[in-house]
Amino acid sequence: MKIERPIIALDFPNREVTLNFLKRFSNEKSLFVKIGMELYYSEGRQLVQEIIDLGHDVFLDLKLHDIPHTVQAAAKVLGKLGVKMITVHAAGGQEMMMAAKDGLISGSINNNVPKVLAITQLTSTSEDNMHKEQLINTSLEKSVLNYAKLAQKSGMDGVVCSAQEAKQITTVTSNDFLRVTPGIRLSGNKMDDQKRVMTPDQAAKQQSSAIVVGRAITQSNNPVETYELIKYLWENN
């Protein structure tokens, strides 16, 4: 399964900046956008609904990670919002991930259950960081593959990983198990705080199911033109 539209990460501080950005895409009937912690904590569910009402699909990336009961209750609330995808941390374990799925199902309206993605290792994490700070002594790739297998076993619809691991994940899960990959940059872009990055065409060749693009688009001098270029590179590889 491949999501044809690049997902734009709306990493903005407030409603006004966000809506002004979206107005620039007036010729696009429906974007796929990601709302992360900064924007959600600033504006809450009201902005989520406003963006959905504009005709856009929303990936709500809050990375739930707590005891199973708390995650289940939170997911039940999120299930009512009408978003397409949410995230939980695979590190929370099987019981927590299953609780998230149960919460979404019980909270969803008209059986429109959002897809649940498990965070494996953040694209800002290097193998050295993982060894020294998480005390995980295996390779970063093996850690990601382990989380992917656990996520599928727990009923998740896919994972968030770097494009570098996407192809390998298909060998331990299945082709319809989503591999959503942030850390996407155009050639020549700064890496910023990301460690494991790829271009859109490279991600496509590595069998990413979807790409999430933030600063390459949102900080571009011409976001619409950059979006179209990324979309072309993604669709045609």
From TrEMBL:
Residues the record lists as binding substrate: 11, 34, 61-70, 123, 185, 194, 214-215
Gene3D superfamilies cross-referenced by the UniProt entry: Aldolase class I
Family: Belongs to the OMP decarboxylase family. Type 1 subfamily.
Superkingdom of origin organism: Bacteria
Subunit structure as annotated in this protein's UniProt entry: Homodimer.
Active site per database record: 61 (for ompdecase activity), 63 (proton donor), 63 (for ompdecase activity), 66 (for ompdecase activity)
Enzyme class: lyase
Full protein name: Orotidine 5'-phosphate decarboxylase
